[in-house]
């Protein structure tokens, strides 16, 4: 359902995949992210067309399928962090095939992906980009943590931040491409900001305090994987962490294997991070005296 959360600022939190938004300016709209399922992306494009007859840009908060898959349904250039462009440049047909495979039990959705083409960003930034459109100021800002590309859109007038997947609420985050230490420090930074409202990548809108459970999750993941690593377990053996993390956040019925896959990717990523902090297994015990970071 489309909701106006501030003057000419709209969100829809009901699509499968990520949250989407639309900010109107005197010259047209800036759309934030596009749904993964084509029929939902078309629905989103239709909703936006009720608000404005011109979409100036679509902003992808990262390169993941739940943010970019519907880009083609908006006839507007895409803005994203340069790292998102790099990732999306490497997407092959297998990327769409893998997305189709997520919907094995829903053939009516699977079929929709036959018409999907990935539309890459045309305008890229790295740190921060300020856009002035009439009375409105929009600040695109790199956030990182979740992926090197993760970025947000800040509306200074309303003190609203679209966080991208830096923040997900009441849902298992995806740590597969993360820098978990950077993510924790960025969430600490977030809690010090005076934002009025946050639109997370997934979940209901919230305030900066709502980021605490996510920090706890990342800390738990780091500490569990760290103890596996330091006990000399291999990455495969460290998969025991998956069941320990499963109930940290709720998940919908029928999504268990998807969530397990997501946690597995996170365990693998954090395991590699531990390796880079503590050195190869085996060397660790000889050297002794670790530097605890978290
Ligand atoms: Zn993401």
Helix and strand arrangement:
Layout: E1 2-6, E2 9-12, E3 20-25, E4 28-32, H1 38-51, E5 55-59, H2 65-68, E6 78-81, H3 82-89, H4 93-101, H5 107-110, E7 123-125, E8 128-133, E9 136-142, E10 151-155, E11 160-168, H6 180-191, E12 197-202, H7 212-230, H8 240-245, H9 256-278, H10 283-287
Parallel strand pairs: 4-5, 5-6, 6-7, 11-12
Antiparallel strand pairs: 1-2, 2-3, 3-4, 8-9, 9-10, 10-11
Helix pairs in contact: 6-7, 7-9
Bound molecules: zinc ion (ZN).
Features:
294 residues; alpha/beta; Metallo-beta-lactamase, Chain A; 2 domains; 7-stranded mixed beta sheet; 5-stranded mixed beta sheet; 10 helices; 12 strands; 35% helix; 22% strand; disordered C terminus; binds zinc ion
β-sheet strand percentage: 15-25%
Rg computed from alpha carbons, rounded to a whole number of angstroms: 20 Å
- General shape: globular
The major β-sheet equals:
7 strands, mixed
CATH-scheme architecture of the largest domain? 4-Layer Sandwich
CATH class descriptor of the largest domain: Alpha Beta
User: CATH topology of the largest domain, anyone?
Assistant: Metallo-beta-lactamase, Chain A
- The overall strand count is 12
What hetero molecules are in the model?
A: zinc ion
State mean pLDDT (0 to 100 scale). 93
What is the CA-CA span between the terminal residues?
Answer: 40 Å
Can you list the strand order of the major beta sheet?
1-2-3-4-5-6-7
Question: In CATH, what is the homologous superfamily of the largest domain?
Answer: Ribonuclease Z/Hydroxyacylglutathione hydrolase-like
**Helical segment count:** 10
Estimated structural class: alpha/beta
Reading the helices and strands in chain order gives: EEEEHEHEHHHEEEEEHEHHHH
Overall tally of structural domains: 2
| Fraction of residues in H or I helices | 25-40%
- Low-pLDDT segments: 285-294
């Amino acid at each position: 359902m489309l909701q106006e959360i501030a003057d000419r600022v709209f969100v829809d939190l009901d699509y499968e995949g990520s949250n989407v938004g639309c900010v109107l300016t005197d010259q047209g709209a800036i759309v934030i992210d596009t749904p993964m399922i084509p029929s939902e992306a078309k629905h989103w494009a239709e909703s936006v067309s009720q608000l404005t007859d011109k979409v100036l840009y679509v902003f992808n908060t990262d390169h993941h399928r739940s943010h970019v898959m519907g880009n083609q349904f908006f006839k507007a250039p895409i803005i994203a962090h340069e790292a998102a462009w790099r990732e999306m440049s490497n997407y092959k047909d297998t990327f769409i095939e893998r997305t189709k495979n997520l919907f094995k039990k829903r053939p009516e959705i699977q079929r929709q992906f036959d018409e999907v083409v990935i539309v890459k960003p045309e305008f890229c930034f790295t740190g921060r980009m300020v856009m002035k459109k009439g009375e409105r100021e929009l600040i695109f800002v790199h956030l990182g943590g979740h992926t090197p590309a993760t970025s947000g859109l800040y509306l200074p007038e309303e003190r609203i931040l679209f966080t991208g997947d830096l923040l997900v609420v009441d849902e298992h985050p995806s740590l597969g491409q993360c820098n978990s230490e950077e993510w924790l420090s960025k969430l600490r930074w977030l809690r010090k900001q005076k934002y009025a409202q946050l639109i997370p990548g997934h979940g209901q809108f919230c305030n900066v305090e709502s980021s605490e459970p996510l920090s706890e999750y990342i800390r738990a993941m780091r500490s569990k994987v760290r103890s596996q690593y330091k006990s000399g377990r291999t990455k495969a053996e460290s998969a025991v962490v998956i069941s320990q993390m499963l109930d940290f956040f709720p998940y919908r019925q029928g999504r268990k294997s998807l969530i397990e896959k997501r946690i597995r990717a996170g365990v693998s990523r954090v395991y590699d991070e531990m390796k880079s902090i503590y050195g190869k297994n085996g060397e660790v015990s000889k050297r002794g005296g670790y530097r605890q970071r978290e």
